[in-house]
Amino acid sequence: MIRTRFAPSPTGFMHIGNLRTALYAYFYARKNGGKFVLRIEDTDRERFVEGAIEKIYRTLKTCGIEEDESPEKGGDYGSYIQSERKPLYLEYAKKLAERGGAYYCFCSKERLESLSDDNGNRKYDKHCLNLPKEEVEARLKANEPYVIRQNVPIKDGEVSYTDMVFGKISVPYEDIEDNILIKSDGMPTYNFANVIDDHLMNITTVIRGMEYLSSTPKYNLVYEGFGWEIPEYMHLPPIMRDAQHKLSKRHGDANFEDFTAKGYLPEAIVNYIALLGWAPGDDREKMTLDELIEAFSASGVSKSGSIFDEPKMRWLNAQYIKELPFEKFCELAKPYYEESVIKGKFDYDLFSRSLQPRIEIFSDIIEKVKFIDDFGAFAQEIYYNKKLKVEVEMVKPILEASIKALTVATDYTNEGLVNTLTGVAEALSLKKGQVMWTLRAAITSLPATPMGVTEAAEILGKTETLRRLNFSLNLLK
């Protein structure tokens, strides 16, 4: 059975690159009838961030990613939090040392620093490899500080493997250092813990970023040192913020929860991120989670990085927003109305009817309703419209006729207002669009608004609409 895993470090928010890795691992497992495992790799205690594990769980759940085994759900392979497995890694490191694939190293910090060349490069020289067994045991018994290092064979040739995306990858033995497997504090390094866990959790397919392409051979030497089967690999190209720079957690780029706070829908984020570095083989851009799973394959993964284009994600999010049931849109929009100038003053649903087809993300609402409070004196040039052939000299008769008609009007619904203003246009022998354009500017004092004049007038009500029209008329005098 195919078993994939997502193994994030709890060092902060869920970065978009991490989310894509989780998605691809999830897609691959589901597509092949396998299992998707969540493992928390928290051996780097210096970078551990309180609450980060909860953010990981929350993000996966929000995105619809359902792990089959995790620290919460358990499974057949024990704890899924690395820090809780500390004795296990030491046990396996000792076993590897017994098999000749690792050794104890007692070198001091000063000796290690002396190994640096003129360029500051440092490679361990296997100084402790051939220490007599009796000496090693005596130094351990004396509680001397030590680490356990990987024993990379000294020989010509290369270590090779085949990646599902990049094909054959080879690294010369001479370029692989005897890396530390167990640190002096007893904690395992990533290099060692991920191999032990992947084997013990029966992970068949390791999906991760391409930064591990060249280091995977040293992991494979650990597998070989134990006589274990090596998993298949799928390394993923980076997500870029521009042509030269990768998205970076350290630079605060692309936080999933920041995007949801802005008003992006989780399903739109998932859809967009899934298509960064992978293509379904057709022209589809809007895809459900089930469609993404069905279409996913390693052959569609690109070898080159993809630039994160937030305007494109905004566009895709707008498509999702337009398709929401109206009641759901109103529910999701309410927190943003509550942050805006209209908080508690109007029926939010009246705004939602106009805004649902006009916003890209929900936080757009805050800016788009500002016209309610921002009304004031304005330049007369905003009346001018070349396409509709609206000239400034046409404005005064339109305003006067409209004020007269709206004063006696009794139906201030959008439909009723359309009928009233259509009558004004007919009486003045003008096109309806000319009247609507002019009045929209007159009651909003803006050259562009998120809704038509009748929609705005319905929200403002009769008294405020007439007050604004009279104000704008007086500006002409």
Verbal overview:
It is a single chain. The protein has 477 residues and is mainly alpha-helical. It has four domains: 1-71 and 237-323, HUPs (Rossmann fold, 3-Layer(aba) Sandwich); 85-182, Glutamyl-tRNA Synthetase, Domain 3 (Glutamyl-tRNA Synthetase, domain 3), CATH 3.90.800; 328-372; 380-475, Arc Repressor Mutant, subunit A (Orthogonal Bundle). The protein contains 18 helices and eleven strands. It has helices spanning 16-31, 52-62, 86-98, 109-113, 133-141, 190-200, 216-226, 256-262, 266-274, 289-295, 310-322, 326-337, 348-355, 364-368, 395-408, 414-427, 432-444, 453-475, and strands at residues 3-6, 35-38, 102-105, 147-150, 158-163, 167-172, 180-182, 205-209, 232-236, 239-240, 306-307. It has a three-stranded antiparallel β-sheet with strand order 3-4-7. Strands 1-2 form a two-stranded parallel sheet. Strands 5-6 form a two-stranded antiparallel sheet. Helix 1 packs across helix 10 (289-295). The longest helix has 23 residues, at 453-475. The chain is elongated, with a radius of gyration of 32 Å. The protein starts with a strand and ends with a helix. The model has no long low-confidence stretch (mean pLDDT 92).
Backbone structural class: mainly alpha
CATH architecture of the largest domain: 3-Layer(aba) Sandwich
CATH superfamily of the largest domain: HUPs
Q: Could you name the CATH class of the largest domain?
A: Alpha Beta
The averaged pLDDT comes out at 92
Looking at the chains present, what oligomeric state does this protein adopt? Answer: single chain
> Could you list the spans in which at least 5 consecutive residues all have pLDDT below 50?
none
What proportion of the residues form beta strands (DSSP E)?
A: 5-15%
Order of strands, widest sheet: 3-4-7
What profile does the largest beta sheet have? 3 strands, antiparallel
Taken together, the total number of domains comes to 4
Q: What is the fold named in CATH at topology level of the largest domain?
A: Rossmann fold
Could you give the order of the helices and strands?
EHEHHEHHEEEEHEHEEHHHEHHHHHHHH
General form: elongated
